[in-house]
C-alpha cells in the first residue's frame, strides 16, 4: 500500500502538460504586423503618392510573417508571438528554412545547411511559440517540388517535415499548424494527400493551399476538399487569399493582372482565409518585376495588386 501512495504522490507532483486550446478562441482577431514590408515601405516613403494607398490596402492588414535561417530563431519567434499575444491577437507565421527549398522554382533557394541544422531550427521555432496562440504554415512548396528531387532527397525531406510536425505537436500546444499542400494547378489531389500523410499531417491541424499563388478561393477550396476526401477526412485546411482576387492566368511568377483577395477571416469555405504571401513582395526576377529579387518588396507590384493591372 505504501508504494501505491508514494507512486500517487510522485504522479501528482509531475508537471502537467499544457492543455491544447483553439488559438482562435484565445484571441480577438488576427495580428497586424507593424513592421511588414509594405508597412515599413509606406512609413519610410511618406512623400510617395503610392504610400497612403499601399498602407491602407496592404500594410494595415493582417499578413503572415515568414521566418528563415536565424541563429536566434527561438527568441525571434518568441518576441513576435509575444507581441501579438500582448495585444490579444492571433499571429500567422511561416516556417521557411528547409534545406534545398524551392527545388523546382529556384528563385527562393537556400534554407538550413543540413537536416540536423533544420531540426535544431524548427525545434527552437516551436519552442519560441510555446503556449502562446499562433497559426503556422510549415514550409511552402515542400510537397510540390518532388519532380525535381531524387527518391533519397524526398525521403530525407519527409523525415524533416515529420519532425517539424512533431515539434509543433509537442512544444506549441495552442498553435494550429498546417503543412503546405501546394495549389489547385500543381499536384493531383490524391497524390498530394499521399504526400501529406507521409509528411506527418496527422500530427498537426491540417494543411494550407494556394500559398504564394493566385487560384480563386473557390478553386482552392474545391481542391483542398478533394485532398481531404483522399485522406479519408480529418485534417482541416486554410487558403492563401493574398493575391487571388482575379484568379490565376496560369503563371506563378509575378504575373500581371492579378488582384488582392479577401483579407484574413475565419471560415469562408476553409478553416481560415489568410494572407500568407505578402502582397507586393516579388516572386523572383520574372514577370512584371524582372529586376526585383524574390522576397523584396516592390511598390509597383503592390499597386498593381491594388488596381488589378
From TrEMBL:
Enzyme class: hydrolase
Keyword Magnesium: no
SUPFAM superfamilies (alphabetical): Glycosyl hydrolases family 6, cellulases (SSF51989)
Keywords: Carbohydrate metabolism, Cellulose degradation, Disulfide bond, Glycosidase, Hydrolase, Polysaccharide degradation, Signal
Active site: 141
Pfam family, one: Glyco_hydro_6
EC number: 3.2.1.-
Signal peptide (UniProt feature, chain positions): 1-20
Protein family: Belongs to the glycosyl hydrolase family 6.
Protein name in the entry: Glucanase
Organism name: Lentzea atacamensis
